[in-house]
Write a structure and sequence with these properties.
Chain A: This is Two-component system OmpR family response regulator. The complex is a heterodimer. Chain A is of the alpha/beta class. Chain A is built from eight helices and twelve strands. In chain A, helix 2 runs parallel beside helix 3 and helix 6 packs across helix 8. Chain B has a five-stranded antiparallel β-sheet with strand order 2-1-5-4-3. Classes of the chains: A alpha/beta, B alpha+beta.
């Protein structure tokens, strides 16, 4: 995917670009707002990665300018400001995601991948399936190999998020934010506890596992191992 | 800057302003009085002239010209100090009687200044001002009666003089009064000013004396003192954070440094660097960053950040969400988790922060009680407002330690081996006070009961 990275700190810029390139992305980098606006309007990108705090025209203004110029590319803010207010302000400006510095490379990759394949599944889609696992989004029922699986509400929400992002890595923070609306790290093994229950129901007793743990990154629901 | 000079002081300017206002006021008043008096005197004079003319005209008509001339001559001699003077000329402009020069024989009203005339009884021989009115008699002769206005002029001059004298006197009084009041005020202000300087130089616990003079001024110094209290507590908070960071981040930073040194030795030594070592170093860094994040969040909450986004928050929904999220966690750690959640309990606040607070309390209970303990989450409406409680039947916290655990980085000896930096309760406490609520720790007999109360 072709990405635009706005970041004023050279070390961070090089590091982030390296991480993204290693994952197979093509990166245009810039270090100031006007360049970002120029690149953003004259090229077509999959995802915009914007540092909020850059000298001169800041990331927020860059995104405002791009949005008013009709650029609807998904955007993710990188920021050192960890306040509820700042996040809400960023999302209100038209950002699609928000990542607080410092962050793990795997976290950024997962989020960029999730944003890059937008627009996500249309609402009209009512059934999703991976291999022999099927989720009926309307009836909220799950079957595997034709057998009905009973899930608790939380387990169902977790599975629904995983299957909507089937084949992609989802990180712990993405799950916390999207399944439980926790915008902070609770510290204990919240995700692991839920995930082990979900696995017990979805994977145990079947010929192969569909939910995979990706080391140092998160989880992936996939027919492939 | 130290000593305010009197002339440049506000007191002096104040006095000058007051004096100027008084001077202008007095001037206007006296000028107006002088004018009214003058107008009145002029009216009296012209009335008497008109009366005199009427009488003489009547005499001329009824008794004849000879009697008129005699009458005028008599009157000229009778009127003392020549208050009123006369002139009668025939139609050839020859003077027939009276002491006004024949040249003044004109019909109508005129002001006339006569050069000094020797009257015998008016020794100084000063010029005389007359207000004359002339009428034509039926045979063409002209009769003129003049009233001496010199007295009127004297009166006006005297009034003018007293206007100036009074004006100056009153202005001086106002100036002195203003200076006295101003100086007293200035002294008191100077006392306050000196107190401010001492505070700026570091005697932070000093407070401003009352300014006095009026309740408004005392209100000002009371408010300034309240502001100083707030500044002092904020500064204490800041100092606390710096000390905390210095003390409590040193340990994990030291550990990180040791790990990096081990790895460096491993690069050249016998034991190669393992992925575990690198991961441990990254984890150590992450935990340091998490501490920073929590500290920054606590201090921004204590400074009141986030209040502008407050809205209606459904506490029942949050409690349910946290309860469901932690049910499997509690099962895995062999705790029992129950909930007693009243429906539709709402408060004004920030949903995200309240979720974090309730999550933190639940985490605390799970981490600090032994397996087999019971934990109960509840929200209820009470007389005083809304109460969110997380209660357990674990070891509890001794009464003497309950205040301290709300402080940053404070950890009970028994919990030193558990994870965490001792910031959880400090954060919850900050979130509670941001919402105008309170965090209360009490004995659950046995165990600990943590209550967040929000005013109704």
């Amino acid at each position: 995917m072709k990405l635009l990275l706005l970041e004023d700190d050279a070390d961070t810029r090089d590091h982030v670009a390296k991480v993204l390139r290693a994952a197979g992305h093509v990166i245009d980098t810039c270090s100031n707002g006007p360049d970002a606006i120029f690149l953003g309007t004259s090229n077509s990108y999959g995802v915009l990665i914007l540092d909020r705090m850059v000298p001169g025209v800041d990331g927020l203004s860059v995104l405002k300018a791009l949005r008013s110029a009709g650029v609807l590319t998904p955007a993710i803010f990188l920021t050192a400001m960890d306040n509820v207010d700042d996040r809400v302000e960023g999302l209100e400006t038209g950002a699609d995601d928000y990542l607080v510095k410092p962050f793990a490379g795997s976290e950024l990759l997962a989020r960029v991948a999730a944003l890059g394949r937008r627009p996500p599944i249309q609402d009209a889609v009512t059934r999703l399936s991976v291999a022999d696992l099927e989720v009926d989004l309307l009836k909220r029922t799950v079957t595997r190999a034709g057998r009905r699986i009973d899930l608790q509400q939380q387990e169902y929400k977790l599975l629904e998020y995983l299957i909507r992002h089937a084949g992609e890595i989802v990180t712990r923070t993405m799950l916390l934010e999207n399944v439980w609306s926790f915008h902070f790290d609770p510290g204990t093994n919240l995700i692991e506890s839920h995930m082990s229950r979900l696995r017990a129901k979805v994977d145990r007793g079947f010929d192969r596992d569909l939910i995979h743990t990706v080391r140092n990154a998160g989880y992936r629901l996939d027919a492939e191992t | 800057m130290r000593k305010l000079s009197l002339l440049r002081s506000g007191a002096f300017r104040f006095a000058i302003l007051i004096a100027a206002i008084f001077a202008i006021g007095t001037g206007v008043l006296l000028v107006e009085v002088e004018r009214s008096v003058g107008r009145y005197a002029t009216e009296v004079a012209s009335d008497s002239v008109a009366a005199e003319l009427a009488v003489l005209q009547g005499e001329d008509r009824t008794a004849g010209r000879g009697d008129l001339i005699r009458s005028i001559t008599l009157r000229e001699q009778a009127v003392r100090e020549h208050q009123i003077r006369y002139l009668l000329v025939d139609n050839q402009a020859h003077r027939l009687a009276g002491s006004i020069p024949a040249a003044a024989a004109r019909v109508g009203s005129y002001d006339l200044v006569l050069p000094a005339i020797d009257h015998g009884d008016e020794g100084d021989g000063a010029a005389v001002s007359l207000m004359t009115v002339g009428v034509r008699l039926n045979d063409g002769a002209i009769l003129v009666v003049g009233s001496d206005t010199s007295d009127l002029k004297d009166l006006r001059r005297a009034l003018g003089l007293s206007t100036i004298e009074f004006g100056i006197g009153i202005s001086l009084l106002a100036l002195i009064g203003g200076l006295v009041v101003g100086t007293i005020f200035l002294r008191r202000l100077d006392r306050v000013n000196r107190a401010v300087e001492r505070i700026m130089q570091g005697s932070l616990s000093e407070r401003l004396p009352a300014i006095g003079m009026s309740p408004e001024f005392d209100g000002l110094s009371t408010n300034l003192n309240l502001m100083l209290d707030r500044i002092e507590s904020l500064m204490a908070g800041l100092r606390q954070v710096s000390t905390d960071i210095a003390h409590d981040l040193r340990t994990p930073l030291t550990r990180l440094r040791q790990r990096l040194e081990d790895m460096k030795a491993g690069l050249s030594g016998a034991e190669p660097v393992t992925e575990e070592q690198v991961e441990a170093a990254i984890a150590e860094t992450d935990s340091i960053l998490a501490i920073f994040r929590a500290l920054l969040r606590i201090s921004s909450l204590e400074a009141g950040a986030g209040k502008q986004r407050f809205g209606e928050v459904d506490l029942s929904e949050i409690l349910n969400r946290v309860f469901r999220a932690y049910l499997p966690v509690a099962e895995d750690t062999h705790h029992t988790l129950s909930a007693d959640i009243a429906s539709d309990v709402t408060v004004q606040g920030d949903a995200e922060l309240l979720t974090q607070a309730i999550t933190n309390l639940t985490e605390n209970a799970l981490v600090h009680t032994p397996p087999g303990s019971h934990i109960c989450l509840s929200v209820s409406r009470a007389m005083s407002g809304v109460v969110v409680a997380v209660a357990d039947n674990g070891p509890g916290i001794p009464a003497t330690e309950r205040d301290k655990v709300l402080q940053r980085f404070y950890r009970l000896d028994e919990s030193r081996h558990t994870q965490g930096a001792g910031l959880g309760l400090a954060l919850v406490s900050a979130i509670a006070s941001l919402h105008g609520g309170q965090l209360l720790l009490s004995d659950n007999c046995p165990g600990l009961r943590v209550e967040m109360t929000f005013g109704g």
